[in-house]
Amino acid sequence: MDAKLIVDEVRLTPILVSDPPLLNTQGVHQPHTPRLVVEVVTRGGVSGLGETYGDGVHLDVARPLAEALPGRPVTDVNGLFALAEEAGDVPRHGTDPGVDASGLRGVRTADKLRLSVVSAFETACLDALGRTLGLPVHALLGGKVRDEVEYSAYLFHKWAGTDDWGEALDPAGIVAQARRFDRAYGFRSFKLKGGVFEPAREIAAIRALADAFPGRPLRLDPNGAWTVRTSLAVARALKDVLEYLEDPASGTAAMAEIAARTDVPLATNMCVTTFEEIPEAFAAGAVRIVLCDHHYWGGLHRTRELAALCRTYGVGLSMHSNTHLGISLAAMTQVAATLPGLRHACDTHYPWQTEDVVTPRPVFRAGRLTVSDAPGLGVDLDREALATLHRRWLADDGTLRNRDDAAAMRRIHPNWTPTRW
Amino acid sequence: MDAKLIVDEVRLTPILVSDPPLLNTQGVHQPHTPRLVVEVVTRGGVSGLGETYGDGVHLDVARPLAEALPGRPVTDVNGLFALAEEAGDVPRHGTDPGVDASGLRGVRTADKLRLSVVSAFETACLDALGRTLGLPVHALLGGKVRDEVEYSAYLFHKWAGTDDWGEALDPAGIVAQARRFDRAYGFRSFKLKGGVFEPAREIAAIRALADAFPGRPLRLDPNGAWTVRTSLAVARALKDVLEYLEDPASGTAAMAEIAARTDVPLATNMCVTTFEEIPEAFAAGAVRIVLCDHHYWGGLHRTRELAALCRTYGVGLSMHSNTHLGISLAAMTQVAATLPGLRHACDTHYPWQTEDVVTPRPVFRAGRLTVSDAPGLGVDLDREALATLHRRWLADDGTLRNRDDAAAMRRIHPNWTPTRW
Question: Do B78 and A145 touch (CB under 8 A)?
C-alpha cells in the first residue's frame, strides 16, 4: 500500500456548538451541544474530516481508536469496527440502561456507541482517501445516482433565545417559522418536532401548515411520546395531509399495532436504529420508512447496506438528523447521492446551526444541496472556528459536555418531567 | 472527473472454453462452454477486466451496454444497471420461461440477464479504477478483512473425456477424485454435485467421502432434483456428516418444508438468486446459507449488500460457482476478502478449467487463495490465449455458443430427459 494512504495521526477535537432552545419530548436543547471532530491525517500530509456525537462516552471510545489507527491504510474502513472493539472496552457508564439522551435511539449498548464513533473515523478516512486520489466520496461508494439531494425543513416549537428566530409555541408561530424556511432555503417538505404540547395543539399546527402550504409533504415526530390510542387519533385527524407520522409511540410492538390500524405511513429513527432491530420490525410491518443516520449505523458503507435492506423489503428510506455541522451534512449528501430510490427529503437540523467548522457554509437552493464532485467530502476545515469552539468546550465546567435535554429543561423548570400523552 | 478515469472503449470477446464432461441433473457439460470477457479501456490507456456468462442472450445485452459506456467514469458503477436498461431491451428470446440452462437460477427474467452482464462491466470498471489508482479492488470495497479466502473441492460424477481426470461414476471414483483435489490443492471441504444418479448411490458417495476424510465439511447438491420426501430421506441418512445440503428440492416452498423437518442446514443458489426472492425465503426459514454468485447478483457491490442482508437475518453466506475463468475467480476472491462472517469455504469450478485467459494461473494452497494486494483484480490478460479461445468461438457452427447441458447429453443419449427422484 502506498505510504501516502497510511494514517499518520488522528486528531480528536471536542467542541461545543451553539444551539437554539428547541423543544422536544426529552426537554430542550442545551445552549451548547457537544460534537466531536475527527481528523485523520495521512503520511502524505492529507487530512480527512469526520464528525459525530461528542458526549463523554463518545470521547472515551474515540480516544483508544485514535491511538490504534496510525499505521493502517485509510482504505481499510471495513476493519474499523473490529479495531474499535480491540482498542478498548466501552466504559461501564457508557452503557447505563435508559434512553440515549443525545440520540433517542433506545437503550444504549457498547456496539451502538462504537458505531457512532466509528462513523466519524470512516467518514474521515474516506475524505482523506478521496482527497488523496482526487475523487469525491460518492465515487468511492460506487458513484452518485443523482446530482442534488433534497432536504426538509425541520420545524420546532421553541423559546425565544439569543437566536433571531424568536418564539414558536403555537400553530401561528410554527407557520411563521415554516415561511422563513421556505423563503430562505426553498424546502418543499416540512417536519414538525412534536410530543411537546398536547396532541390537539400539534394537530392544529400541522393543519395550519397544510393550509399555508397546500400539497406540501408534512411530517410530525413526537419521538415516541404518545400511546397507541393517541397515535391513532392523531393519524385519523391528519391522514389527508401527512406524508408520514414519525415514531408516534415507543417500541416496535406499539408501532406495529398503530401501523395495522392506519393507512398513514409510519417512519422511525427510534425502533430501527441497528441491523439487529430490522428483522422483527420489518416482519411486524411496524415501519414503512426508516430514517437512517449514518452516525448511528456506523458510517457511509453501512448506510448503503441499510438502503439495500430497505429496498429488498419494500421499506422506504430517508435520513434522520440530530444537531450536526457541515462535515456531517456533506457526508449525508455524499452517501444520499449514491442511494437509488431515495424518495423522501432528508431531515437536517443544519439551518439551526449558526456556527460551523467548515467553510464556506453549504447553501440550500430549492431545498436541495448540490452533490459536490470535489475531492473527498468537498468541505474545508475552518481551523479558527474549530479552535474557538474547542476553547468553549475546554472552558465548560462539565455542565454541557454531555447533552442532556431534560437537565437543560430542569435548569428552567426544576420539576419538569417528560409527558406521555 | 480526471480524464484518466473516463471510459474510452469497451471490448467484448466471446470465447469457448474447454470443459470436461461433468454430469449434473440438467445433463452434461458441453465440451466447450461460452464465456464473455469484457475489457473496459480508459482514456488513460488502462484496461480493466470482467468475465461473465457468454450465451447469445448475454451478448445481446452486453453489446448495447458496451456502446453506451464510453464517456462515463469508471467510478460510476452504481449507475450501470440503469444504463443497461436504457441501452437496450432484452431480446424476447432472452426471457423465455423455463430454467436458465447455464445458471440454474429459476425462470429467466430481463433483470436477471442484465444483472449477469452488468456484473462483468462492474468488475472491469473496478479493475480499471484500481489499476489507475494503484489500489486492489478490495480496497475499493472498503478493504479486506482477511488475507486468504478458502475454497472447496467441487466433485462431479463424470465421464472419461479428453481431460486426465478419468471417469467417476461411483463412490470409489468420487473418493479418488477427492483425493486428487486434496493432494493437488489442499481443499478441506468437499462438495459433490448430485442429482445425477439414484439418491442411494449419492448417499453412498458421501458416506465414502466421510470415511476417507473424517471430519471434513461435506456438501451435496442435486440442483433441486429431489422431492421433499427424498430430500428428507437423504438428510436423515447423512445428517451426521453433512455441512449442508444444497438445493435438495426446487422452490422456496419445498425448501421450507424440508428445512422445517431436518436439522441439516439447507443452502441455495436456486431459490434465492435475486434480492426480490429474499423476503419470502427468509421469512419461511427455507435456507440457512445463501450461495452468492456475483454474476447473478449484479457485481461486487451488490454481493456486499447481499452479505449485509444475510448477516442481518442470521443467514450464512458462501459462494456459488459455475464454469468460470481466472478473472471471475479473482473477483470472487477480492469481494470475499471484504465480507465479515464468511464461515463456509466458497465453491469454485476453477480446477476443472485447463484453459484460462489470465496468466499466471492462480494457485490454491491448503485450499486457499491469497488475496492479492496488487492494483485492480491482480490478474493479467493473456491476449494470445484470449485470441485462441475467441477463434474457437468464431469457428463454432452455433452448437456450443449457448450452453445447454441437456442438448449436450442428448447428443450422446438422444432420448435423455432429466430425472426427478
Answer: yes
Subunit contact B312:A134, Cβ cutoff 8 A: no
What ipTM is given for this predicted complex? Answer: 0.96
Claim to verify: residue B268 and residue B320 sit in the same structural domain:
yes
Chain B: closest CA distance from residue A139 (Å):
5
Bridge-based pairing state of the strands B148-155 and B190-193: parallel
**Judgement on whether residues A68 and A25 belong to the same structural domain of the protein:** yes
Exposed e or buried b per residue across B104-116, where buried means at least 16 C-beta atoms within 10 angstroms of its C-beta: bbbebbbbbbbbb
Interface residue A419 vs chain B (CB under 8 A): no
A112 a catalytic residue: no
- Interchain contact B309–A (C-beta under 8 A): yes
How many Å apart are CA A283 and CA A295, to the nearest integer?
Answer: 25
What φ, ψ does residue A286 adopt, rounded to 5°?
-75, -25
CA distance from start to end of chain A: 58
Residue of B nearest to A276 (CA): B312
Residue B344 CA from chain centroid, whole number: 15
Contact A279 B313 (CB under 8 A): yes
Q: Which residues of B are catalytic?
A: 193, 320
**What confidence tens digit (pLDDT) does each residue in A46-87 have?**
999 999 999 999 999 999 999 999 999 999 999 999 999 999
- Match 398513514 to its residue by C-alpha cell: A264
Q: In the numeric block, which cell numbers belong to residue A207?
A: 393543519
B3 touching chain A per CB within 8 A: no
The tally of domains found in chain B comes to 2
Bridge partner residues of A41 (DSSP):
A9, A47
CB within 8 Å of A401: residues ≥ 6 apart: A14, A16, A34, A54, A55, A56, A393
**Which residue from B82, B142, B314 is facing A78, i.e. has the nearest CB?**
B142
Residue B126 lies in a domain: yes
Range of the domain at A27: 3-137+381-397
φ and ψ at residue A420, rounded to 5 degrees: -115, 125
Q: Which residues of chain A make contact with B77, given a CB cutoff of 8 A?
A: 142-143
pTM above 0.95, yes or no: yes
